[in-house]
Amino acid sequence: MSAVTTQTLGRLTGAVRRGPRTRTGPRLAPGRPIRFGKALGPVLLLAVWSAGSAAGLIEPRLLSAPWTVVNTAGDLIADGRLQGHLASSAQRVALGLVFGTLSGVLLAVAAGLSRIGEGLIDGPVQVKRALPSLALVPLLVLWFGIGESMKVITVALAVFVPVYIHTHNGLRTIDSRYVELSETVRLNRRQFIRHVVLPGALPGFLLGMRFAVTAAWLTLVVVEQVNATSGLGYMMELARTYGQTEIIIVGLVVYGLLGLFSDGLVRYAERKVLSWRRTLAS
C-alpha cells in the first residue's frame, strides 16, 4: 500500500473517531426585546414628516403638517363627529367578524372531519380565496342593495377566508398520536371533537383571526365609501370631496390604530390560551 493511501486512510479513520465537526458561528438568540422597539419606525417617520413640513418641503395641500392633523383631530373629537363615525365603523366590523368567524369555523370543521365535506366545501372556498372580496362589491350591491347588509356581508366574506384556511390547516395537522389515543380511550364523536379537534385547531384558528381582523378593517375603509352616511370611510370620502387632507390623514391614523389594537387583542389571547407553547418570540 502506498504512502499516500496510508495517509488518506489515516485521515478518514481519525475523522470517524472524532465525529462530525460542528460548525461554530453566530446563533440566533432570543435575548431581551428592545423596550418600545416597535415605536422606533413610526417615531422616525413622524420626525421626517415634521421636519419636512416645518422646512416647507411638503406641500400642505398634499400632506398636512402633523400639528395641523392633531388640531383637526381635536376639533373632530370636540364636536363628536369622530366618535360617531368610529361607532358606526366598529359596529360593522363587529358584525362582520361574528358572521365571518362562525361561518369559517363551521365550514372548516365540516371539511376537516369529512372527506365528503372537504370535497364539497374546500374547492369553492379556494375559488373564493382567489377572488378579492372587494371585487364582489358590484355583485353584492345588486343582491343586497347599498345599505348596511351589503357592507356587513362584504366584511364577513373578507373575514371568512383566513379563518377557514388556517382553521382547516390546523385540523389537518393534528398529531395522529392524539387521534390514536382517542380511539384507545374510546371517545365518542362529540368528545373527540371537544377534546382533540378543537384544541388541536386552536393555534391555526387564532392565526387566522390575526389575518381576519386586519382584513376586516381594510375592507371596511372601501365599502364605507359606497353610499354610506356614517363611518370613518364616509368621513374620509367627504373630506376628499372638499380637499381636506388633514381629515383624511386623521381617518388613516385611526384605521391604523384600530388594526393594531385588534391584532394586539388577538395576540394577547393567543399568548394566554397557548401559553404552553414556547417559541422564540415568547
UniProtKB/TrEMBL annotation:
Primary localization class, coarse: membrane
Give the subcellular location. Answer: Cell membrane
Q: Which residues form the ABC transmembrane type-1 domain?
A: 86-266
Where is there biased composition of kind Polar residues?
1-10
Q: Name one GO cellular component term.
A: plasma membrane
Family, as annotated: Belongs to the binding-protein-dependent transport system permease family.
- Which keywords does this chain's UniProt record carry? Cell membrane, Membrane, Transmembrane, Transmembrane helix, Transport
What protein name does the entry list? Answer: ABC transporter permease
Q: Which PANTHER family did the record assign?
A: ALIPHATIC SULFONATES TRANSPORT PERMEASE PROTEIN SSUC-RELATED, ALKANE SULFONATE ABC TRANSPORTER-RELATED, MEMBRANE SUBUNIT
- What residue range is the signal peptide? none
InterPro entries linked to this entry: MetI-like, MetI-like_sf
User: In what ranges is there compositional bias, type Low complexity?
Assistant: 13-30
Q: Transmembrane region positions?
A: 39-58, 93-117, 129-146, 152-171, 192-213, 247-269
> What broad taxonomic lineage does this protein's source fall under?
Bacteria, Bacillati, Actinomycetota, Actinomycetes, Kitasatosporales
According to its UniProt entry, the protein's GO biological process terms are: alkanesulfonate transmembrane transport
Topology in membrane: Multi-pass membrane protein
Chain spans, region Disordered = 1-30
